[in-house]
What we know:
PreATP-grasp_dom_sf; manganese; ligase; D-Ala_lig_Van_CS; 322 residues; globular; six-stranded antiparallel sheet; 35% helix; metal-binding
Amino acid sequence: MNARDFGKVAVLMGGKSAERDISLMSGGGVLKALQSRGVDAHAFDPAERDLVELKREGFQRCFIALHGRFGEDGTVQGALELLGIPYTGSGVMASAISIDKVMTKRVWLAEGVPTPRYTLLRRGAYGDQDVGRLHADLGLPLIVKPAREGSSIGVAKVLDPKDMRAAVDAAAALDADVLCEQFIAGDEVTCPILGSGEGARALPVIRIVAPEGNYDYQNKYFTDDTQYLVPCGLPKGEEEAIQQLVVKAYRVLGCRGWGRIDVMIDGSTRKPYLLEINTSPGMTGHSLVPMSARAAGISYEDLCLQLLADAALDHEQGAAKA
């Protein structure tokens, strides 16, 4: 597709979520890449401008580089559907389900996709007894996280029962739903997916080796201490099995365009457990989708162009299927 065929393109970045700073970094990279290939691309921050201006100013496509709420949760996607402006990534329903880690788990479990055991606590509806049962139900250590945040914001690994209440309360301060999850000890990997439906394909798996096994917000974005191994170095056959599994998980959620699924591999059984999916993954200098794409021979600029070329509207996808 010729760069001129894209028309005037808005790179949506920033936004109102807790991941605003990361989104600005992602969006800046995407904007520079598209402009370098001759695309008429412009920055657009929905936290500072009304989305209606997209229509008024003649934008014909949107590259969504927003992360988290009000960008990755179906809200912006719904607004763009009403405006009739094609956008990158998953549609309204898939975005809304995928940002909610509990809803994602429910769909995956219904479709036979392995994910760690969990307990859901709701803000204002749990007491000391509920929190006190967690380690008996899920074992220790366990993971506590807000159900609808990304970039490891609000995530805690609880080693001692006495620290449980503080971890749950901290997560509840960020989200009404708190996900308490079985901890899987073993290899931490992630796998991006490109495309839609039967055309979806997995990129190379990346194995993540973080300092003391702590892949938190700081180690994700602001240090060079975390190792990202691609080729991943997993035993023969494991990478292919994980790729097949994540493509299935992506399809059953109805995702399109692109995504990235995080996986833990049990160190003793070698069974993979899917943790969550990102439907608008990071595109920063530390981000994993560009890293995996590069290993597959796709440059950052080509990746951005491919994602933009796949921009679509939900109702057009439905019409095409019909």
